[in-house]
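Researcher: Go.
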Amino acid sequence: MARSEADWIVGINATRALTSKYNAQLSCGRVQTPTVAMIAALEDEIRGFKPVKYYGIELNAQSCRFVWQDKNSDGRTFDKEKCDNIIRRIQSKKLTVADVSRSKAQTLAPALYDLTELQRDASNIYGFSAKETLSIMQTLYERHKVLTYPRTDSRYLSDDIVETLRDRVRACSVGPYSKIGFRISSNPIKGNKNFVNNDRVSDHHAIIPTEQPVFLKDFTDRERKIYDLVVKRFLAVLSKPFEFEKVSVKGTVDDEVFTFRGRVTLSMGWKEVYGDYEDEEELEEYAENDFSALKKDAQLSISSVKRTEGETKPPARFTEASLLSAMENPVRFMKNADKDLKKTIGETGGLGTVATRADIIDKLFNSFVIEKKGRDIYTTSKGRQLLELAPEDLKSPVLTAQWEQHLNDIAKGRLNKESFLNDMIEYTRTVIREIKTSDKKYVHDNETRTKCPECGSYLLEVNGKKGTMLVCQNRECGYRKGIAQATNARCPECHKKLELKGEGEGKIFVCKCGYREKLSAFSKRKENEKTAISGKEAAKYLAKQSKKQDEGLNTALADALSKLKL
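Model: Structure:
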């Protein structure tokens, strides 16, 4: 309650003060403003980054790819000439195997989903927004009743859930999950510390299937995708580990060291659920006979040697998936904070909660302080100006860490709630005074010459999540009008997504490459395409017909007759 009331006192007053002072819709708060500040800080880091070229050497021997290890670095150098000299020196020589090590290893399935991890994967794999994923999860939980409570920050189960696991597996063993589900449910299912831990379950356990019967045909395409993520993760956790043998080889050519790392799969284990799942440290796959010649002191002929090169890269821009991660653990953006504050924010779950982060990100888009270009998130001019105008304390995750320390004291009875709230009221008065006395200015740099039809103020052109729109700058008016809508239609020339502009019969598709096509012409072209059948569709149809013919045969009788000796 103390957290909720403090957020309301500070947020509503700071927002109102900024909005009134600068006559612009400027929203400010303990969570949303530091989130914008993190995006801006990453942009500054990217802007100031200068790429540097680096070089390496690869050679092939006995069908294995060896990588050069520089004595002073990890397999790369910024000295191109050094690489070229080494290549000239070793070109016609043999590689001597100095050491071979083989060890059996195994990896466990990734942990069960909490909401944040599910939102991250849905964003990375399907491009779903955090709010969209939560909405789909709510439907699967409330209407279909096939998944458990979504707003959880735990990735573990409690002991009392273990006895229900067999029923849950049987319930979700439909369609593509039937084979693996049957195999898992045919054996005793025991809980282990990898996914059962009472101490790591807070209010709700991880997201898993329920015992409710499942009818996949009742799901929409989006519901099917989210359900697929959850069920596969659940079945993977209940499967055996992925087992493999690691092979590491160290070789030398004229005193230069080259290394090779590969693996031989022994048992697919949980990876059978996914078919293809990339590890964080993915080793190249080899067959056992590929290593027959890799023995100590063996002399291997070099079939090819080449110089490799690349460039140091700036950090990647935030996507919704990576922004959720940063909000969950914002320590990187607390450079000047002491260790206790960093520890506190790590233990308390970062900025916002698992249930509110999606709404916060969505609110930042809707208030036009951030925008999307593809999947990447950028701050807008309005967002940058907001950071200039907002009080310094409200721009850092440090404030949240300080609050959490006080809230922890309240929870343990060491601090009175009213005392904390009185401090927050005094802090709010300080924030308002700082805003009120500021001599900074706010400038609408996206102002158009088009006037609002309702109040006469000039309209602002903004980029929303679904396209470009005109918004009235008069905060009391609220007029909005879409002028360009992002679509999934593809340009026939460059295959990029088209934008739909205009109104009524004048609607036109526009591409960045310059291609333009009226909506009416586009619709007509699509209708004509529907009447034709592609080669791929024809092949699918023939395969289906062939399958139907095979199903019509009495295969049991055919098999029995084939064994008769006449």
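Model: The chain is about 40% helix and 20% strand.
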